Amino acid sequence: MAAPTESYAGKIQRKLLKKQRVIEAASGRQKADLVLKNATYVCVFSNQLRTCDIAVANGLIVGLGEYDGAREIDMTGKIVCPGFIDAHIHLESSLVSPREFARATLPHGTTTVITDPHEITNVMGTDGIDYMFQATEGLPIDVRFMLPSCVPATPMDESGANLDYRAIDSFYDYPRVQGLAEMMNAYGIIHNDAEVVSKIVASQAHHKKIDGHAPGLVGKDLDAYVAAGVYSDHECSTKEDALEKLYRGQFIMVREGTAARNLEALAPLLTPQYAERCMFCTDDKHPSDLLEKGHIDYIVKQAINVYGVDPIVAVKVACHHAARYFLLNNRGAIAPGYLADFAVIDNFKDFNVEMVFKKGELYYDHGELKDFAAPQIEEYLDQRAHDTFHVRHLVEDDFRDQRQRGVIGMVPGEIVTTDNGYADHVDLEKDILKIAVIERHKNTNHIGLGYIQGYGLKSGAVATSISHDSHNIIVVGTNSRDMAFAANRIAENHGGIVVVENEQVRGEVVLEIAGIMSDRPLLDVNRELEAAKDAAFRLGVSRGIDPFMTLSFMALPVIPSLRITTRGVIDVITQQYI
Amino acid sequence: MAAPTESYAGKIQRKLLKKQRVIEAASGRQKADLVLKNATYVCVFSNQLRTCDIAVANGLIVGLGEYDGAREIDMTGKIVCPGFIDAHIHLESSLVSPREFARATLPHGTTTVITDPHEITNVMGTDGIDYMFQATEGLPIDVRFMLPSCVPATPMDESGANLDYRAIDSFYDYPRVQGLAEMMNAYGIIHNDAEVVSKIVASQAHHKKIDGHAPGLVGKDLDAYVAAGVYSDHECSTKEDALEKLYRGQFIMVREGTAARNLEALAPLLTPQYAERCMFCTDDKHPSDLLEKGHIDYIVKQAINVYGVDPIVAVKVACHHAARYFLLNNRGAIAPGYLADFAVIDNFKDFNVEMVFKKGELYYDHGELKDFAAPQIEEYLDQRAHDTFHVRHLVEDDFRDQRQRGVIGMVPGEIVTTDNGYADHVDLEKDILKIAVIERHKNTNHIGLGYIQGYGLKSGAVATSISHDSHNIIVVGTNSRDMAFAANRIAENHGGIVVVENEQVRGEVVLEIAGIMSDRPLLDVNRELEAAKDAAFRLGVSRGIDPFMTLSFMALPVIPSLRITTRGVIDVITQQYI
Fold first, then answer.
1. Are the C-beta atoms of residues B223 and B247 closer than 8 Å to each other?
2. Which residue of B201, B210, B221 to mutate against A (max A Cβ within 10 Å)?
3. Alpha helix segments (H runs only) across B423-504
4. How far is CA B67 from CA A355, B28, B37, B317, in A?
5. How far, in Å, CA of A419 to CA of A451, rounded?
């Protein structure tokens, strides 16, 4: 028999009892659960350091003064910051499960991230959103969602789903959804595409936020984009770009991640004149970057030490401003009624995170991370996430082709490409390789073929199912047999990266969750990834290129000049297949 | 036949069409409705004056740049500010209808007020809230509501209603409700009174704001009050008081109204260090004060010119900060997507408001106020508001009494009182008068009797139905006959103020809406009010006393030392009738 539904009166009574405990502890009539004694903390309201006891009960800060607690921790000589917030990330970019992501970022003082589950949604449709809800439930970092706005990224993409405003509408009622994620289709808005604009209208109808993504947009195009209801941007790479958006009321997410780094350019905004409108984000964080540099704490440290930003300002940008923007009004500050989320550091200069508290619980303490349970994922979603490859067994002949095809020219260190004419066969002397994109969601048997120049591979094939934004299988090779073997291997593994030579696996990362994430620990995934990179380099891939990341952008038909989709090589400027 | 209910798809389509017009105008493909040409405006995001055209369509700002409009107004030499916001007011204190209030404040640049309909709700219960919703619908100032939290103000009060959390709960769904109004019962919260705390819990359950009212509260009491969920305070009268609250995360409403003036004390908060957490409010504005000084514009002007506040800071406090606090995220700034609410001034020093726009419509232009329709009030509520006196005809004997009663001592210029012992008869030599409070809501026949010293009346009687917070009839007199006549006159008029001598009316203000507001123009009400004051002074009332306002606080049993309720004279400190 199902439990009876809670009445409104019952709900109020349940919350009342919690509230009364908070009031009893705040008043000093009952002991607090936890007291940070003699704590010097960042007061985001008076923009200064203040020192007193911080009392905690029921996971909330209840008082600032002198308090006794069931547990007391002396904070003399430390600085207590509100827990940090990543204002925009795609969790999938870490290549690990959200739980593993939490294990990696919690020790850096991160207690809240705003994720756009755009990658998994391109694979699994709305089931991907549900999967991420369940995979983040109850984690000791609070994962909040922006709903993917552009699935698929373009009409040329063959992704796992095609979502209009109505398809995502019911998710706005979910308590951890803050709004609509980056509206990448800026021209769709500016040119008043009803299907695109409807997504904004619906998010506003739910009183939710809408994030932007519009590098370099200016003038009336920017006015139209902002007037439509896009409230933030994380794609500014110059101060001027950022100011044009700030003047028009957009919040600026200063991004410093793995793929894009804008802190240097935007540090001049982190002054009292502008900082109120700024927050930090990473957008994408790859495993090695997370392990070597850290997360939001790394950005704060750089801002203070490299760019001379006032430490109080830097910390506010790292927590308070994102909280206010996303209407998460009980976090991002240290005051009664706020979540007891703390990042305790040694000092502003070294900025070593020594202890991290989430809702009053000490999760990280001088190098020791407390274990926490993996979220429960229901059987349907779990099986669905682990069975996303619907593609027949491929054979050598699938990659044999006598026609001439466009040659995509790679540019070292960039993701733009050049138009290098045509080819009709692999030519290792000219570094012309065959490239293919294999539709893998719906068994359509669509295989786009073309050539690529500048990758450097001398033998075998490299394949990956991380292939923005549709995450089909992309494979580059010197011969058709290894290309077929590599693509089949990806499908058999239910996703990942593989480096193949003579039908032998030379390096491999299995990404069995939707073909883009692993269930295993971040350290293991990172080790395998670095080993696979080495294998690719040994097969000749140019050292100036990230063998897998660069490949993963070759199927995104929005970046000039040439790309390849499941239907062949496309000229991005003219949107014509060539 | 009723119109069919709008489908969700229909609603999105309706909003889409409006949005598409905004985008077309922003992009410049269609003409804007209105363009403020060459406008120097306050940019609250970059904290500076900026100059460009401001384009408006569909009542929204759509672009900042160079634009053509169906109507163009040259703004050269002027300063365009976002429309001003009063963060906390009881509209009833103006003694006129909301429409008349709008006529008085719109020329001062006010485009939004947050009202607590606490006065009318004490008379009419939740019907008072509904009445105010209807009486403010469609006005060219946007009236937003905080739901009264303390009706009646105390258990000793006999008001027209007794509202628990459940009684006001359905009002949270009303689109113009922002939260729960000033939690005056601070000790109820601190001492964890379930009935009081439930009101906060319910407001939070609706994701709404909760305003505070806690003069001088400090230490753990303040921690408990804030931890309970009270987000603001408008009762700070010293910088120290305000800082204690600001440190704990409360927003500070700097109040400068008719009854209480805190700008001088709190001006030191209006600096870049603290101003982000501050906004302006008036709390109460009486007719003559509105007419002589103005509204929020007056506070801004004083802040700049008397207290040396930076003009950009002062303007932000007057609009942007209140908008953000109340989550009214499309107002309080000049940027695409924001409401086209503007106060155009000549310069920061003189701060003369010359033009006022509400949603892009020019309502006030150099002394000329555009007329606007009175909101429609349904017959039930209109009749209900005009028939709130349920009290039998009173006679001389009702005020005759041989017992000794407490003597309330008035203090010139203050609303506190002293305990002046006992009396058993009127003694004009000692300035001891009889005072009575007559329950008038429910025909209970309760009449509290007592004496008052220091009022000065030498002849006749003075009565008013503005009597905080329950708005019973309060009457002071030299003799029982005039007291009965005055009280009866109030009831016959359905409310107001009367000055009586020898059963003749010497001065009178009719306040026929719930006994506390008039349907007539503010100028007329003010003239009658000033004439009635003169009449009271002619009958001997001391010149240092506001004859009616001072009286209106005598029945509020929360301010020491003695007060009078419908049950007699009460010692506020001991809460005992004496």
1. no
2. B201
3. 480-492
4. 54, 7, 8, 29
5. 11
| Tens digits of residue pLDDT in A189-247 | 999 999 999 999 999 999 999 999 999 999 999 999 999 999 999 999 999 999 999 99
Query: What is the helix (H) or strand (E) element at residue B88, kind and residue range?
Result: strand B84-89
Type and span of the H or E element at A448:
strand A447-453
Structure tokens at B122: 């004490």
> Minimal CA–CA distance to A101: which of A464, A498, A511, A523?
A523
CB contact under 8 A, B205 and A15: yes
Residues of B whose CB is below 8 A from A192: 20, 23-24, 27
List pLDDT tens digits, range B239-278: 999 999 999 999 999 999 998 999 999 999 999 999 999 9
Q: Average pLDDT over chain B, rounded to whole?
A: 96
Q: Do A247 and B64 touch (CB under 8 A)?
A: yes
Q: Given a cut of 70, is residue B506 above it in pLDDT?
A: yes
Chain A neighbors of B248, CB-CB under 8 A: 64, 335-336
How many beta-carbon pairs below 8 A join chains A and B? 196
* A513-554 residue pLDDT tens: 999 999 999 999 999 999 999 999 999 999 988 999 999 999
Percentage of chain A beyond pLDDT 70 is 99
Token match 């400190």: residue?
A: B573
| Candidate from A62, A220, A276 with C-beta closest to B223 | A62
CA angle B70, B297, A246 (to 5 degrees): 60
What's the pTM?
0.96
* Site from B27, B56, B173, B209 to mutate, A interface, most A CB atoms within 10 angstroms: B27
Q: Give A396's contacts (C-beta < 8 A, 6+ positions apart).
A: A480, A481, A484
B525 contacts B287 by C-beta, under 8 angstroms: yes
Mean pLDDT of chain A: 96
Which chain A residues are Cβ-neighbours of B166 within 8 angstroms? 9
**What would the two tokens of residue A361 be?**
């619980």
- Interchain contact, A45 vs B277, CB within 8 Å: yes
**Amino acid identity, position A117:** P
pLDDT given for residue B156 in this prediction? 85
- What stretches of B270-365 adopt beta strand conformation (E)? 278-281, 342-345, 353-358, 361-365
Backbone torsions φ then ψ of A485, nearest 5 degrees: -60, -45
Half-sphere exposure of B444 (CA within 13 A, CB side): 15
Q: Which amino acid is at A30?
A: Q
CA atoms within 13 A on the CB side of A291: 15
Residue A493 is encoded by which pair of tokens?
Answer: 């593994």
- Once rounded to an integer, what is the mean pLDDT over residues A300-307? 98
Cβ separation of B247 and A43 shorter than 8 Å?
Answer: yes
Residues of chain B positioned with their CB less than 8 A from the CB of A198? 12, 16
Cis bond before residue B561 (omega within 30° of 0): yes
ipTM of the prediction greater than 0.85, yes or no: yes
Nearest-Cα distance to chain A for B86, in Å, is 21
In this prediction, residue A562 has a pLDDT band, given cuts at 50, 70 and 90, of very high
- Quick check: A27 and B221 CB within 8 A? yes
Closest CA to B323 of B112, B61, B57: B112
Helices (H), B137-262: 165-169, 186-190, 194-205, 219-227, 239-247
Token pair for B242: 């305000």
Question: Which residues of chain B lie closer than 8 angstroms to A26, CB-CB?
Answer: 220, 223-224, 226-228
